[in-house]
UniProtKB/TrEMBL annotation:
Species of provenance: Nyssomyia neivai
Domain Ig-like: 13-121
UniProt lineage: Eukaryota, Metazoa, Ecdysozoa, Arthropoda, Hexapoda
Record-given protein name: Putative conserved secreted protein
Length: 278
């Protein structure tokens, strides 16, 4: 009876992590990355130590009454003045990374230790580095362009993790891919390119073509678009959409299309006059 009572009492007074605030993804921009570990302590808990691990390696430690101590990849990257709570036992429980980098992807574990007990909770985080540039273009006349097929190239530079690129018509139909290339820089970022060919006979002029960038296992999506015309003359225009899954339609200026149409009318009239007056 006494042993059972001791075990129950010990369990009830143990430190407990009630919430681990680690996002599944973080897009590198100007915003800091905040990782928070919310816990509850029993009154009798003593000698508190809060630790953060990245892939099982210590990267942060805080003991009440002292300053936070970032380690390894977090050294010189953590905001040591951030206050997560006014409670003296929880002031620096959070780790705020001012400038996260791609190599901070992984499993983050919060360890809350006291002399009496320990609590542990972990979550995965994927750091996303958007491409420095995402472009789509059609090979033009004078660049050994095929008269029967339109060749469209999409390129993404300096992205992480390795992105997937696909060329698509606006209805979502995937365009035949004829070439693809992936390179990783010394800095760990990826350069990716794909090339697709479209039969001009199957095109309705003008035909919007999208290059869609996605990151496996996330909802992150980025898009660039161009317009391909049937025949030999092409006019392109690109736009971008940074909102996940929320693609807006391009507002294309039809003046270039009217110009092409007027040129064809002039050619047809000239041909008609030539037939009457050889």
């Amino acid at each position: 009876f006494f042993l059972h009572f001791f075990l129950v009492a010990g369990t009830c007074s143990a430190v407990r992590i009630t919430e681990l605030r680690v996002p599944t993804t973080h897009i590198v921009n100007e915003d800091p990355l905040v990782l928070d570990c919310v816990y509850e302590l029993a009154p009798e808990e003593t000698k508190l130590v809060v630790k953060w691990l990245l892939n099982d390696q210590p990267v942060y430690q805080w003991i009440p009454g002292s300053r936070p101590y970032p380690l390894s990849v977090m050294r010189n990257r953590v905001d040591e003045k951030h206050v997560a709570s006014e409670d003296a036992q929880k002031v620096h429980r959070a780790m705020v990374i001012a400038e996260p980098t791609w190599n901070m992807t992984g499993e983050y574990t919060c360890v809350v230790d006291t002399f009496q007990s320990r609590a542990i909770k972990a979550a995965m985080l994927q750091i996303i580095v958007p491409p420095a540039e995402l472009s789509i273009k059609e090979k033009k006349e004078g660049e050994t362009a095929d008269q029967e097929e339109a060749e469209v190239t999409c390129e993404a530079d300096d992205a992480y993790p390795e992105p997937q690129l696909s060329l698509q018509f606006r209805n979502g139909e995937t365009i035949r891919r004829t070439y693809g290339n992936v390179k990783r820089s010394d800095e760990g970022l990826y350069d990716v390119s794909v090339v697709g060919k479209i039969s001009r006979m199957k095109l309705q002029s003008p035909t919007p073509v999208d290059c869609v960038l996605t990151i496996h296992g996330t909802t992150y999506t980025l898009k660039r678009s161009t317009v391909v015309l049937a025949g030999q003359t092409t006019t392109t225009q690109s736009y971008d959409d940074l909102d996940d899954g929320d693609f807006r339609e391009a507002n294309y200026d039809d003046r270039s299309f009217r110009s092409s149409s007027n040129n064809l009318k002039v050619i047809n009239i000239f041909a008609f006059i030539s037939c009457i007056y050889p």
